[in-house]
Amino acid sequence: MDQWITTSEAAARLGVKRGTLYSYVSRGVLSSRRMPGQSESLFDRTQIDSLAAAKHDGRRAGDRLLRFRAVASGVSAIRDDRLYLRGRDLAELCAETDFAGAAKLVLGASSAVTPPDVDGSVVSGVPVERRIPLTVALIAAADPLRADLSDIGDRVVGLLPRLAASVPEIDFTHPWIDLLATVLIDNGLAASTTAARVAASARAGVFDALLAGYAALSGPLHGGAPATARVLLDVVVGGTAVDRALADAVVGGRVPGFGHVIYTGVDPRARIVLDRVRADRPDSQAVAAAESIARRVGRPMNIDFAGAVVTHELGLPVRSGEVLFQYGRTVGMAAHAAEEYGEAPLRWRGSRTG
């Protein structure tokens, strides 16, 4: 059975008009793709069938609890290789505001609620990539209102300075760092945001939902990916031939930091960050090395490699890219959790395979 079906077939399966189908795409409920020589957009059969099942179950209002449903989100949307946060084009948003402004927009926050104090000496004793999750865990343990589902935006805005303070090795006010955190706020239903939504669906408090997201983010295929990209960049800048470095870096048939499962062309987040670095430091050895690797790979850099360029140029630890991923994505995960609190609890159906 083919994974991809045409627009006409998808609309027929859902019993909706083509225009309704495209509105699902713009809202982030469904994803679509275009293939050369194909007159219609293509849709993932599994997504369509799952949404059809959710629509069928929804007709029986009494059975909605713990039934499968599609996840609709207004946090971000991806269309034609462009990323939008709350309907704002990411490039335009970055040109107009900083991370703090973008965070308030995405979270719908108007002020900041200061979290409880925690023992910083405990946090400083762990590796940099574990400090933000540990800080949030300690704050959750100390907060008697940790299960309160109100004022999510204001509480998370108040949390952000505490997270930055937990990693003094990084200057979060540096314009490149601020920009990198901004473009990392959200990118659709990635593993981390999905994990946070699942926890929020069970009505875990926002801090505990964030911890679920950080757990997913720690995997080498997600938030841990910038570290492998950074290692590749470091060895090329250090003088290793590109072909030799690539031979050592490829894992599972993939070159870390190149290509993306969502973007068919250039990752817009990488473009925004690299354009800023090029403008500020035109003689950057890291950018030159990254471009030489990109020419050899034949695919555009993604945000993992752009982040590696930033952390290399600023002399930050190898795992600092993961820290910045956690910091920026904290906003997106919290926004998704806040959305999920207003939905019926999530439940997936397993499919029999044997």
How would you characterize the overall build of this protein?
The protein is mainly alpha-helical. It folds into three domains: 4-70, Multidrug-efflux Transporter Regulator, Chain: A, Domain 2 (Orthogonal Bundle); 83-222 and 321-340, Citrate Synthase, domain 1; 225-318, Cytochrome P450-Terp, domain 2 (Cytochrome p450-Terp, domain 2, Orthogonal Bundle). The chain is built from 17 helices and six strands. It has a three-stranded antiparallel beta sheet with strand order 1-3-2. A three-stranded antiparallel beta sheet has the order 4-5-6.
Question: What tags apply to this protein structure?
Answer:
single chain, 354 residues, mainly alpha, Multidrug-efflux Transporter Regulator, Chain: A, Domain 2, Citrate Synthase, domain 1, Cytochrome p450-Terp, domain 2, 3-stranded antiparallel β-sheet, 17 helices, 6 strands, 54% helix
What is the strand and helix layout of this fold?
Layout: E1 4-6, H1 7-14, H2 18-26, E2 32-33, E3 42-44, H3 45-58, E4 76-79, E5 82-85, E6 88-89, H4 90-96, H5 99-107, H6 120-124, H7 128-142, H8 152-165, H9 175-183, H10 191-201, H11 206-217, H12 225-237, H13 242-249, H14 268-280, H15 285-297, H16 303-313, H17 320-340
Antiparallel strand pairs: 1-3, 2-3, 4-5, 5-6
Describe this structure in a few short sentences.
The protein has 354 residues and is mostly helical. Helices cover 54% and strands 5% of the residues.
The fourth-level CATH homologous superfamily of the largest domain is: Citrate Synthase, domain 1
| Largest sheet report | 3 strands, antiparallel
Global structural class = mainly alpha
Q: Report the portion of residues in β strands.
A: 5-15%
User: Kindly, what is the distance between the CA atoms of the first and last residues, rounded to a whole number of angstroms?
Assistant: 17 Å
Overall number of domains: 3
CATH architecture of the largest domain: Orthogonal Bundle
